[in-house]
Design a protein that fits this description.
With 259 residues, the chain is of the alpha/beta class. The protein has one domain (3-251): NAD(P)-binding Rossmann-like Domain (Rossmann fold), CATH 3.40.50.720. It has 6 helices and 9 strands. Strand 5, helix 5 and strand 6 (197-203) form a beta-alpha-beta unit. Helix 1 crosses helix 6. The protein is globular and about 50 Å long. Bound molecules: NADP nicotinamide-adenine-dinucleotide phosphate. NADP nicotinamide-adenine-dinucleotide phosphate is lined by residues 8, 10-14, 32-34, 58-60, 85-88, 113, 154, 156, 203-204, 206-207, 209-212.
Length: 259
């Protein structure tokens, strides 16, 4: 039923992806930086015996990414989907409201988790993705696409430069814009040659997680998605993308967001 790697699987949207994919019967490699404290993920693993393989990976550490890629290559051989879900608003958990809140350390840490880590995942997992493709936990493969795996980066609408009308959240906005550029670059490099990989950036909506919690009171009634709702929307996009979609930036409803 396919093999998916979820990076940033301990909580929030990444954890929900693991749950949704395991329920479909996919094998899930669930990467998180502290497996010993990932209690919700371990509970989920016990509900799906043999389907969820928990692998330690701090996305800001290349040595962890290399170890994980070697483990996956040896034990799983191929990947049909890699989803980079990890993300932070900033190290304080809040977006900067003005220049006075900026620090080199905050910018660097946010970029490391949101942009540098995901593209380093591509560096070390692209070969395993090229070996995969097709069916992801029940997805009926388009025969034209059956050897094309998907590399998905969790972006955010606030990473769109053309959509920015409010300002603020420097680290988060800038790091997601950089992630979008990485996604576009990857779509070009991994779109050449015989073995291709579809690369996309996704916006999940405003979702009820720890990351968005400080801002829930500002979300209009009915606009805060549950994790399951958001992941159902995003899986529908992943299920239907074909190679013509590579390099695109999609919102939860399937509409394209301008960069
Ligand atoms: N929630 C929203 O409304 C919303 C909207 C737009 C975009 N997004 C994006 O969606 C993604 C998931 O966010 P979420 O809402 O699910 O947030 P969340 O509940 O706060 O989860 C964030 C995840 O990122 C992981 N993480 C943080 N630093 C990491 C590192 N160095 N290495 C590996 N994993 C790390 C966390 O692991 P630990 O448990 O180890 O901390 C956790 O699993 C993010 O990229 C976010 O930017 C969310």
């Amino acid at each position: 039923m396919g093999t998916a790697l979820i990076q940033g699987a301990s909580r929030g949207i990444g954890l929900q992806f693991c749950s949704t994919l395991a329920a479909r019967g996919a094998t899930v490699i669930a990467c998180c930086r502290n497996p010993s404290s990932a209690h919700q993920l371990k509970n989920l693993q016990s509900q799906h015996p043999g389907l969820i393989d928990i692998v330690q990976l701090d996305v800001t550490k290349e040595a962890d990414i290399i170890d994980a890629s070697q483990y996956v290559q040896k034990n799983h051989k191929k990947l049909d989907l890699l989803f980079n879900a990890s993300g932070i608003l900033s190290p304080t958990g809040k977006g900067e409201t003005s220049l006075r809140d900026l620090s080199f350390q905050g910018l660097q840490e946010t970029f490391a988790v949101n942009a540098f880590g995901p593209v380093m995942m591509a560096k070390h997992f692209s070969q395993t993705l090229m070996a995969g493709g097709g069916v992801i936990g029940g997805k009926v493969a388009d025969p034209k696409q059956q050897h094309t795996a998907v590399f998905a980066n969790m972006s955010a609408r606030v990473g769109s430069i053309s959509d920015n009308r409010l300002g603020g959240w420097y680290s988060y906005r800038m790091s997601k814009a950089a992630l979008n550029m990485a996604t576009k670059n990857l779509s070009l490099e991994l779109g050449r040659g015989g073995k291709k990989v579809i690369c996309i950036a996704l916006h999940p909506g405003t979702v009820d997680t720890d990351l968005s919690r400080p801002y829930h009171k500002n979300v209009p009634e009915g606009k805060l998605f549950s994790r399951q709702q958001s992941v159902d929307y995003l899986m529908a996009i992943i299920d239907r993308v074909t190679f013509v979609d590579t390099g695109k930036y999609f919102a939860w409803d399937g509409s394209e967001i301008p960069f």
